[in-house]
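May I ask you for just one protein sequence along with its backbone structure tokens in two labelled lines?

_____
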Amino acid sequence: MRFGRILEDLDTFAVLISYTHSTQGTEKKSPISIVTALVDRIELGEKPFSPFKDIKMKGSVTWAGKTSMEITMNLEQEDASEWKKVLTARFVMVARNPLTKKSAFINALQLTSQEEEKIFELGEVNKVKRQGEAKRNLLKTPPHENEIQIVHEHFLKTLDPSSSTFKIRVKPENSVWMDQTKLKNLIICFPEQRNLYNKIFGGYLMRKAFELAWTSAALYSKSRQVAITTVDDIVFRKPVEIGSLLFLSSEVSQQKNISEGRIIGDIPEDDVYVCESKYQEPEKTIKKLGKGLKINSSQLYGIKTTESFIDEDSRSMDTSISSVFESFTPQPEKQQMSSSSKKKCSEGT
């Protein structure tokens, strides 16, 4: 199930709920314009979506101020003849006067039960929390003392103790420079992605941003088994015009609980070798190397292919065609593979 498409559906559904709330009397059409200001939070359940079963969307206005409202939506999917919640999302929508483009007043909520009062109070708490987080923005306030201490500790870990300058940096073990995780994309905003106001649909923007973030995580972890658990604070600051060139960038900003990857437990450790071969352009042949690297099953972490390079002197391409198993454990010693061994390296391309 493509989560980016779910984001588009959530945005459309939130706008529909907002328009339904803002109608007046017997009129079916709302006199105001509704735009998405913020995706406050999206939480997914432990069980992933199934692409083979229908999804039921439910939502309502859980808090309303003078010109903005909070929309809470739940997605349910049938499991063992029972509809179970698989996602909860909170969107903040704002009303605009279609003529003046300024804020417009919306209908107030009428609370008819204690349950509705508790839901409304929770929406008020979420509003105060959002206002507090906006004030603590790094563009407005400096970091706290504990945040400064964390940044300084990370900085000290990257200094070369044998050097007297800050320009020489040392990457800590089992780490990656944050700049190396950056990924960028450029898209053209065509009219087919427009909304009711001839601007680019916000759900489409969220989908493209999520797909880039997912790709960054997949490249960083060297695995396509990347799952999303939470979406927090997607803010729409300005509308995107049709025909715009939209520049997107992402990077891994934090990592928790280093993943051990997918262990290939079905392969006996005596049958695991790293096989290497070289391709020489002048001879146009693939030559098998005589040495193999034996790996234990407990040390399997991930798979990558080594990069190819071109020798400028001989103008020949020397490519190591191999599958290298990485591990956080010390590298095992290379062992000579006997010709009589049944674990032979294939000479395929």
The longest strand covers residues 82-96. Residues 114-135 form the longest helix (22 residues).
